[in-house]
Amino acid sequence: MISLGNCLSVLFFKTRLIEDFATTVSLYMGGVRSRLECSNSCARNYNCRRYLYCGSPGGDKWCTLFPDGEDCAVKDLVNGTCSCYRKGKQFVDGKCVSPIGYYGEDCASIIKDCSDGKSKSMKGVSLSYIKPLESAKPFEVFCYFDNSFTTIQRRRPDFNAVDFNRSWTDYIQGFGYMHSEHWIGFQHIQEILRTGDTYRLIIMVEFLNSDKCALIYNDFNITTDFGFTGSFMDYSQSCLENQTYVPDPVSVPFSTFDNGPNKVCARELGGGWWYDVAEPFCTNENLNGVHYYPGGNPNIERTKLTTSAKFVLMYLTRVS
Fold it and tell me: Where is each Fibrinogen C-terminal domain found (predicted)?
């Protein structure tokens, strides 16, 4: 606990270190004499909600302050001497300023998705806590508040930093690092969709040749009865003229290498997806599958894409 004179004391909670090469926006990075000094710096900066302290006895000590998030990414877990802490509830002039996603005079309320955050005047792009009505506890998502987008998948296939060829359990529970590549998990996706509101699924793809596509599924939902089969009212797409993009229907069961009716497709293409065995290529895009760089995806001839994906984002946005 850090005491700020006449201000309320601020609690910090130790969180995880994750081995990842992700770079995140920081408020400050510089040398300090101790972890306590780093904590004090974060406590006095109302925009700071997390800090990373690295140092060893007799060596240099560094403090990095961040505007959002819970865990910290480091390049080497084995040889590092770092620790990560997130700030607890903090108030300024009676207003809750930390953590992001909490609101109200006593920080007792939590937004249920990023659309809800926009309605509470939250702005910009940041990690935020949300708590859908059926969630037992809040969890982190990447929010595009201005667009009301709740990110459920974020991928850089050209980085290959996170393996998307994961088990059925992983796709239910989620995996990856929220600041970079991740899948939030079907458990959380369903909690968001069960709020009683109508949602739209948006898939944004940027290809290796810099072409871009947006695919929109209206009135999107998922059922557990048939292996996380998706349903939707209709869909539309917006692509550059020189990119041929045929969307997957998602109205088939999801499959991974160890589960699902089309797990043979997942084993061959290297990632969980709504594969359709009736399709001669299993999938039209292979967005969670293996993409090889440089030179593109050797499996690209087994899809209807003409180039590998460079960046993939999947969002949910509330319509009503």
Answer: 105-295
Rg over alpha carbons for the chain, rounded to the nearest Å, is 21
- Dist CA 208 CA 49 (whole Å): 35
3-class DSSP state for residue 4? Answer: coil
Cα 254 to Cα 4, 223, 250, 251, 274: the distances in Å are 51, 11, 8, 9, 4
Q: What is the pLDDT of residue 237?
A: 81
Q: Where are the alpha helices (DSSP H) in the chain?
A: 35-44, 114-119, 168-173, 186-193, 263-269
Residue 1's identity, in one-letter code, is M
- Biggest CA–CA distance in the chain, Å, is 69
Strand residues in 42-148 grouped as ranges (E): 50-55, 61-66, 72-74, 82-87, 90-92, 95-98, 102-103, 109-110, 125-130, 139-144
pLDDT, average across residues 172-177: 94
Tokens of 59: 């060596």
Return the CATH number of 112-318, one of 2.60.40.3080, 3.90.215.10, 3.40.640.10, 3.90.226.10.
Answer: 3.90.215.10
Q: What is the pLDDT of residues 182-233, one digit of tens each?
A: 999 999 999 999 988 999 999 998 887 788 888 899 999 998 877 899 999 8
Least confident of 145-149, 265-269, 276-280: 276-280
12-92: CATH topology: Hepatocyte Growth Factor (3.50.4)
Give residue 310's Cα distance to chain centre. 17
Measured CA angle at 101 (ends 49, 11), to 5 deg: 40
Q: Where are the domains of the chain?
A: 12-92, 112-318
- Burial annotation 102-121 (CB, 10 A radius, 16+ → b, else e): bbeeebeebbbbbbbbbeee
